[in-house]
Amino acid sequence: MAIANKTRKSYPTRSYLATGGLSPKHLKFCEGVATGQTVAEAFFNAGFKLTPFVNPEKVYQSPNVRAQIDRLRRIAEVKTAMTREELAAFLAAVIRTPIGDLDPTSILCAEFSVDTIRDKKTDEEIVKRTRVKGIPKLDAAKQLIQMQGWAEPSQLVVDSGPNMLAQLEERAKHLVSSLNRAGCVDV
């Protein structure tokens, strides 16, 4: 009498179920796409191998993968959201901070590079040039001005009532007489 081999069905762990049934490779793929990598880059960076049955587009088209990518993008949006006051303070910091005060770790630093040369005699590296590029101050100023409404024209307040026409006629006479004195208008 032969005893049949019974295989025990294993059930996924809670963490596997919490990720929407996605494997670690799929999760890494989703993180890559959500952070701006192309589908092909994320596919190979996650450790997938290209086969006739598995390709970048097929992984990307999975509903669970798309849902995880959307979830990661929403989380990133919430984390990077700024209030109006925070944005105004950031733009003011961009405008006020001198370029000499920026270092590579500053959030106001857009680009930082150091060019070095090697001294042939002592075999030491000598800093030839340091380049620091900050966030453009003019663009920050334009955005702050627009956001605060400082560029909007001031409003003219006009009294409405029975004396309005008389006041406007008086102002027009005064303006015409001023222009006549200046020699600009001959009325």
Which keywords apply here?
2 domains, 48% helix, Arc Repressor Mutant, subunit A, 187 residues, mainly alpha, two-stranded antiparallel sheet
Structure description:
This protein is mainly alpha-helical and 187 residues long. The chain has two domains: 14-80, Orthogonal Bundle (Arc Repressor Mutant, subunit A); 84-148, no CATH class. 48% of the residues lie in helices and 11% in strands. It contains eight helices and two strands. The protein has helices at 14-18, 24-34, 39-45, 56-60, 63-80, 84-96, 137-148, 164-182; strands at 109-118, 125-134. A two-stranded antiparallel ribbon has the order 1-2. Helix 2 (24-34) runs antiparallel to helix 3 (39-45). The radius of gyration is 33 Å and the shape is flat.
The percent range for helix content is 40-55%
How many β strands by DSSP?
A: 2
Which stretches are poorly predicted, pLDDT < 50 over at least 5 residues? none
The outline comes out as flat
Helix tally equals: 8
CATH structural architecture of the largest domain: Orthogonal Bundle
Overall mean pLDDT stands at 82
Q: What is the element string, with H for helices and E for strands?
A: HHHHHHEEHH
Describe the structure concisely for a colleague.
The chain has helices at residues 14-18, 24-34, 39-45, 56-60, 63-80, 84-96, 137-148, 164-182, and strands at 109-118, 125-134. With 187 residues, it is mainly α. The protein has 2 domains: 14-80, Arc Repressor Mutant, subunit A, CATH 1.10.10; 84-148, no CATH class.
